[in-house]
Design a protein that fits this description.
Length: 497
């Protein structure tokens, strides 16, 4: 039994996983409504087959032999050790637990949809309570050092601890909260022109142009429409993004295209020869999000980027934007204002939404709060951090899909991703001569090549923390985000720094 047996086995498991991914992609884009029940069945069958292949004793034997094989290259050794870790984790789950979890998640998800529709939390609460209890059990199954939430966090952001996330959010509270208060006291910027009528087809064509400029490879990908934008890959040569278009809000399409484009570029940059193996996969959700946010915010919401691209937008929409300058456009897209919905928040108050979810999740996992008390807790935190009064459940506690899916420990990766993005971008500015000028001329390939070299090509060779050290010489540091925010928004809102 050698490395080739291992590789063949893992790549076959990947074939099944990616075949399921195509079914999921189709479900979100083109599948007719009536296909839903059979599609769920097909997906579940494939998940079962792949789980069985993965946790099978024979595979365990291959891994045990390879673990001590000194003839393997460094990359091969890494593929084996990462797979072994994951294998041992998967083996801890009993079949009964996996089935119970999957059943509870389905019930909880359906209850959440119904609750959202009826704007009634009580429909959802008992199912969520059951799911939280299972999640607490899962922490015990997985094992952890320190806080039980570490076990959940580890599934999305391996190696990151609750204490580290708490530390980051302490800095958010200490620095970002007062900074946003300062902005709130300043003269507000105008973003009204985004909400005129923008033709769907023209928006679509503009989005494609923006993606091409970023270096997204349409021979190894495509874009489609879906209700929630997402990125999915079946291998590095077939990475698909989706967008949504609102004819009464130009900004939705622009930043969903750039954001998903950033995710897509990461996946197109993974080493194709490592297909199905850990070194052919992305590092973590936080690093994935760092790539989307870097393009969306550090590039896509910068004045430099629009020096070139605003004239392009004006060519598509001369009438709507005839009285708007590139500078107005830039200021409008960076309007900071507290809001109820996380996904449409500006890049600063966004982190308060994440902070609130993190604090609540932690209490749930600690068993210190009852599910029935969540709406009140949620609303009081929105009052505390954003100074707004949540009007109803759907604009409050029912807005996110995550908890109904059992995704606890996921939210912090959104903020972690933005903070990594700021740190990486600051490093890119140091290392790429003339980066700002390039961006202002629409030359984005030097930046893409830098990201390919520093992040994309490595797959899972390094953990997020190791990668960050390797790229920037230090661990994740909130100061980079805060510096970026202070400089940018002091300019937009004429604040004294
Ligand atoms: Co994203």
């Amino acid at each position: 039994m050698g490395y080739n047996d291992f590789k063949t086995r893992l790549q076959k498991i990947a074939d099944i996983g990616f075949a399921s991914a195509i079914l999921s992609w189709d479900q979100e884009t083109y599948m007719p409504q009536k296909g839903a029940d059979f599609r769920a069945r097909q997906l579940s069958t494939l998940a079962g087959v792949s789980h069985k292949m993965y946790t099978d004793e024979g595979f365990g034997k291959i891994l045990a032999v390879l673990k001590n094989d000194a003839s393997l290259t460094q990359k091969e050794t890494k593929n084996v050790s990462l797979t072994l870790e994951d294998y041992e984790k998967q083996k801890r789950y009993s079949t009964e637990f996996v089935e119970e979890m999957s059943r509870t998640v389905s019930e909880c998800f359906m209850a959440w949809q119904a609750a959202k529709e009826k704007n009634d939390f009580s429909v959802y609460a008992p199912k969520l309570e059951k799911l939280v209890a299972l999640k607490r059990k899962e922490c015990e199954i997985l094992g952890y050092k320190g806080h039980p939430y570490n076990a959940l966090l580890d599934q999305y952001e391996k190696g990151t601890t609750t204490a580290e996330v708490e530390q980051l959010f302490e800095e958010v509270k200490k620095e970002l909260v007062p900074f946003v208060k300062k902005i709130a006291a300043a003269q507000q910027v105008d973003d009204g022109f985004f909400y005129k009528h923008y033709d769907k087809q023209k928006q679509w064509e503009l989005g494609i142009e923006l993606l091409k400029q970023m270096g997204y490879d349409f021979e190894a990908g495509r874009q489609d429409i879906s209700s929630h934008p997402f990125t999915i890959h079946f291998n590095a040569q077939d990475v698909r993004v989706t967008t949504r278009i609102n004819e009464n809000d130009l900004s939705e399409m622009i930043w969903s295209c750039i954001h998903e484009g950033g995710h897509g570029l990461y996946e197109q940059g993974l080493p194709a020869e490592q297909y199905g193996l850990p070194l052919g996969e992305t590092v973590s959700l936080g690093i994935h999000e760092s790539q989307s946010r870097l393009w969306e915010n550090n590039v896509g919401r910068s004045l430099n980027y629009w020096k070139k691209n605003f004239s392009l937008v004006q060519q598509y929409f001369p009438e709507q934007l005839k009285d708007v300058s590139a500078e107005d456009f830039y200021k409008g897209m960076n309007k900071v204002a507290p809001s109820f919905i996380r996904t449409s928040a500006d890049e600063l108050t966004y982190h308060f939404h994440v902070l609130i979810r993190f604090e609540i999740e932690k209490l749930l996992i600690e068993g210190k709060v009852n599910v029935n008390d969540l709406p009140e807790l949620w609303n009081s935190k929105y009052k505390e951090y954003l100074d707004i009064t949540v009007p109803d459940f759907s604009k409050g506690i029912l807005q996110d899909i995550h908890w109904s899916h059992g995704s606890f420990g996921y939210f912090p990766t959104y903020s972690i991703g933005s903070f990594y993005a700021a740190q990486f971008f600051a490093q890119a500015q140091k290392e790429i001569t003339g980066l700002d000028t390039q961006i202002s001329e629409g030359e984005l390939l030097p930046l893409l090549n830098w990201l390919r070299d520093k992040v994309h090509q490595h797959g899972k060779m390094y953990t997020a923390a190791e990668l960050c050290e390797k790229i920037t010489g230090e661990k994740l540091n909130f100061r980079y985000f805060m510096n970026y925010a202070t400089r940018k928004y002091a300019g937009i809102y004429h604040l004294s720094e």
